[in-house]
Amino acid sequence: MDVGTGSGILSLFAAAAGAKHVIAVDFSSVVVMAREIAELNGYGDKITFLQGKMEEVVFPDGIEKVDIIISEWMGYFLLYESMMDTVLWARDRYLKQGGLIFPDKASMLIAGIEDREYKEDKIGCE
Q1: Among the options 36, 39, 55, 81, which is catalytic?
Q2: What is the domain count for the chain?
Q3: pLDDT of 73-121, one tens digit each?
């Protein structure tokens, strides 16, 4: 399963790597274009694209659990526009016992800085 599939690139990689079938979910209408891209690349029968919120989409009949969840869930700075909560929901609902999530680790390095001009411009204090 590809959570937040966007253009479908991770779904295409999974299909090309030998996945039997990929369920690709995205809230955006970009799935229409992703479906077309998959078909043009010969994977239209291996990837099912579902448009909607991960928590609300209905999987095709016969699919209860998945072996692997892939997602570009990080957003930037691992937090902003992050899909982590959605991926964790998908894990709890759809991932088979012993299944895998990719990527499954991230690192965040933080350094404190001050930009006096920016701060003055935005909030007006020194």
Answers
A1: 81
A2: 1
A3: 887 777 777 788 899 999 999 999 999 999 988 888 888 888 888 888 8
Query: Which H or E element spans position 94?
Result: helix 84-94
The rounded radius of gyration (Å) of the Cα atoms in the chain is 18
Pair 2, 35: CB distance under 8 Å: no
> Any idea what the CATH number is for the domain that residue 52 is in?
3.40.50.150
Whether 36 sits among the annotated catalytic residues: the reply is no
* Domain boundaries, position 23: 2-123
Sign of dihedral through CA atoms 74, 75, 77, 81? Answer: negative
Rounded distance, CA 15 to CA 17, Å?
5
Give the pair of three-digit tokens for residue 22: 């990929």
